[in-house]
Amino acid sequence: MENSQSAGPSGIEIGLYTFGDLSSDPLTGIGTNTQKRLQEIISMAKLADEAGLDVFGVGEHHRLDYAVSATPIVLSAIAQHTKNIRLTSATTVLSTVDPVRLFEDYATLDILSNGRAEIIAGRGAFIESFPLFGYDLNDYDKLFGENIELFLQLNKNEKISWQGTFRSRLNEAEIAPRPTQKELPIWVGVGGTPESAARAGRLGTGIALAILGGPPARFKPLVDIYRKAALNAGHHLANLKVAVTGHGYFARTFEQAKDEFFPYYSNYWKYINAQRGMGSRMSRDDFEQMASPETGLFVGSSQQIIEKILHQHELFGHQRFMAQVDIGGLPLKKIIESIERLATEIAPVVRRATNK
């Protein structure tokens, strides 16, 4: 990946990602379904592309309360409605997918999108894909380690011979098709574990930090670990990339943003906690603390979001910022308003400030 450590000539990239959750609107009780949600996702990506945002990501879940399990198919549909925006998974659960099949899918997406495909790979915050596809959860980390190393070899070679532990060996196998890009950009998603950051550094991939709350400075050691591991492995800092991802909602004022977003954010954490067997609900006081100017939750006026992004850029020197703005049953109208504010009020200022 030929990208500088600090922001490029146009400043950092600004984008969006979605998990496609199927939550009902907590204020109206109006629900949704997979078909409607997928159409909304395509509409979001089309708007983001037309508004000049840089990247759009789609997550992967294998549950009835999410709309997206076949991420490359959804991204291929988006590719037909967009022209310039980069298209990435967010994230691919690499532990439970065959790396050869994954490479073929995203190489095909890259061809269909004229060279816009990327992958953010992770071990998986949800574990339903392990029994679904016949993998042992005890091999959680070993599967990811083997699969990402194989994927990186597939990315570089048209023919490959390889032998590992968890899949059949490859003997001069032809890896087709080849992407339009020389190589598919790949990032490792990191939630907070130093081991994941160090592995991304050793492999020389990008790193995508999920900063969902709390003081952002607590993630600085992970970026330091990542860059140190990369240098120790012989990679050049100029080729490394850091992305920050997080939840966001943008409005005219801080109070408006909080008042409008709280019911949906509380709803989001209600069903996330229920999935994890927890019964706790978010109070307004909890939300006020999470949304304060010192935290990593991107909720507020455009100026406040600009200040948060630039503060984090001072910490991390990252090349990309991606916001998830469609969670908890938010109606499409509100999602569109956040996307437009991000594209027209936030992104231009951030790009100018990070244009070095």
The tally of structural domains comes to 1
Q: Tally of extended strands?
A: 12
Structural class: alpha/beta
Report, as a whole number of angstroms, the end-to-end distance: 19 Å
Q: Round the Cα radius of gyration to an integer and report it.
A: 20 Å
The chain-level mean pLDDT equals 94
What is the CATH homologous superfamily assignment?
A: Luciferase-like domain
Order of helices and strands: EHEHEEHEHHEEEHEHEHHEHEH
Quaternary form = single chain
Largest sheet: 8 strands, parallel, barrel
What is the number of helices?
11
CATH secondary-structure class? Alpha Beta
| Assigned CATH architecture | Alpha-Beta Barrel
Shape: globular
Helix share, percent:
40-55%
Spans of at least 5 consecutive residues with low confidence: 1-6
Please state roughly what percent of the residues sit in beta strands, choosing from under 5%, 5-15%, 15-25%, 25-35%, 35-45% or over 45%: 15-25%
CATH topology: TIM Barrel
Query: Which strand order do you get reading across the main beta sheet?
Result: 1-2-3-5-8-9-10-12
Organism: Jeotgalibacillus soli
GO molecular function: monooxygenase activity; oxidoreductase activity, acting on paired donors, with incorporation or reduction of molecular oxygen
Domain Luciferase-like: 17-318
Protein name: Luciferase
